[in-house]
Amino acid sequence: MSCIQRNDSGFSMVELLMAAFIMAIGILGLTALQVVSLRQASQGRERSTASHVASSILQRAQVEGQHYYFAKASAVTPVVTPLFTTTPGAGVDETVYGGFNVDGVQVTNADGSAVSNLATLVPDVNRRTPIYAATWLRRAYAGAAPVSTVQCQEFLVNVVWNEEGQVKSLTMSRVIRY
Predict the structure, then answer these.
(1) For residues 178 and 88, is the Cβ–Cβ distance under 8 A?
(2) What are residue 161's phi and psi, to 5 degrees?
(3) How confident is the model at residue 148 (pLDDT cuts 50, 70, 90)?
(4) How far is residue 104 CA from its own chain's centroid?
(5) Is residue 81 part of a domain?
(6) Residue 72: inside a domain, yes or no?
(7) How far apart are CA 164 and CA 38, in angstroms?
(8) Structural domain tally of the chain?
(9) Which backbone phi and psi does 114 adopt, to 5 degrees?
(10) pLDDT tens digits along 5-50
(11) Beta pairing partners, 98
């Protein structure tokens, strides 16, 4: 009697379905990872732009302070209209600086009006909407202000924006001589 020997090779249907199921779970995981990655990249860009806005305002305050300091040391009248260096030594309450668009370009003044030359600064009408609101303050001295021709005070800039329905903020500070 001859016996037919059966040699099963290949995959069964159950094995193929299990492999497809495992692969589908892996692809879904990668898709979810991609969505989270894109969201985090967007949030990182918004935080980076807010940091740029705050840093540029502090740099303007520092330049104004240096200009004011050197003009005072040279006994000349400063040529810039002071924004940050008025009433040296005194504290300044939180003051609105203006609104900035998605690229960090200032599009509104402190009073809410559009900045001059807005069409030149931001040619795209869709990018003229303020996304970031910036405020600044100058801290008063603790106790009596030093009697000196040099004033050094801490300036703080706060930038606020809305991110996915949540209000986010970033605060930077710098001690500025003027």
Answers:
(1) yes
(2) -150, 165
(3) low
(4) 8
(5) yes
(6) yes
(7) 13
(8) 1
(9) -70, 145
(10) 666 667 788 888 999 999 999 999 999 999 999 988 888 889 999 9
(11) 134
Mean pLDDT of 127-148: 79
- Over residues 90-121, the pLDDT tens digits come to 778 888 999 998 888 999 988 889 998 888 88
Query: Considering only CA atoms, which of 84, 39, 86 is closest in space to residue 61?
Result: 84
Closest CA to 151 of 136, 165, 162, 140: 140
Residues 6+ apart with CB under 8 A from 107: 98, 99, 100, 101, 114, 115, 118, 121, 122, 128, 129, 130
Domain that holds residue 169: 13-177
Whether 170 is in a domain gets the answer: yes
CA angle 9–15–18, rounded 5-degree value: 165
pTM of the predicted structure, to 2 decimals: 0.73
Q: What angle do CA 85, 67, 143 make, to 5 degrees?
A: 35
Residue 131 in domain: yes
